[in-house]
Amino acid sequence: MAPGSSAVQQWQEWHQQRLETVVAPYGPLSVTGTYWLAQADDTGWIEGLPGQWRETPDGSGVVLHGDVLDDLSVAGEALMGERTLGTSAGGAEHARITWGDRRLELLRREGQWAVRVHDPGAPARREFTGIRTSPYDARWVLPGVFERYAETRRVIVPNADGRERGLDLGGEIRFTGPDGGEYGLRVSVVGSGALWAVFADGTSGHGSYRFRFLRTGAPAPDHSVTVDLNRTTLPPSAFSEHFLCPFPPPGNTLGLDVAAGERDLVP
Length: 267
Known about the structure:
Shape: globular
Largest sheet: 6 strands, antiparallel
Radius of gyration: 20 Å
Order of helices and strands: HEEEEEEEEEHEEEEEEEE
Number of domains: 2
Strand order of the largest sheet: 1-9-8-7-4-5
Structural class: mainly beta
Strand content: 35-45%
Number of strands: 17
Distance between the termini: 31 Å
């Protein structure tokens, strides 16, 4: 952000960067499939994917076998034979796996491995017309306080693919809404201490997507945090049905109409 720029300008820059991320060749609109290794047959073949895939004996990685007909590369080198792959701490493969002009991303969820396909030629990229977003409104920039749990609490929530998985919660944000009401959101602590919430509100499903994401910076030493609902975003599952996004945990449906931030896709 440019020094001294106004809050509106900063939000406009954020919004533009967000759109560029969404429409990028390998952004969320490019995802055309998520394939679980558990779907592989006895030879390691998974319908819809090239090569042969299997877990390592200890389950800590994935062995990928390819030949010239598969058109697979790892870290820029054509894959001829086997390569053992793992994930970084953030869950993404260190070495890039490509399949022609597509990218393959390794995922691990609840101890199960999957492969996600990013295709820059995905129909969703061609058909995308925009994100319906509310204009910036300073009334939705709210002071909050973060209350950290003594230890992480794991809850089981439904995911967008119909399965249930664990969601780790590190605490709660308490804030006063523009209507004067007191509200709270249970949040995960990610990265260098930033906070992430999955929530629904009075507009969810009729005026906004069925749930949305909110990210904040790390709380200050006094536990204060800014809750800027202008920066509410759609989850990746709004752009592709092949994402595994968690639904809001219990307690994260606000009794408030959040008419701010990203609302839904433009029809």
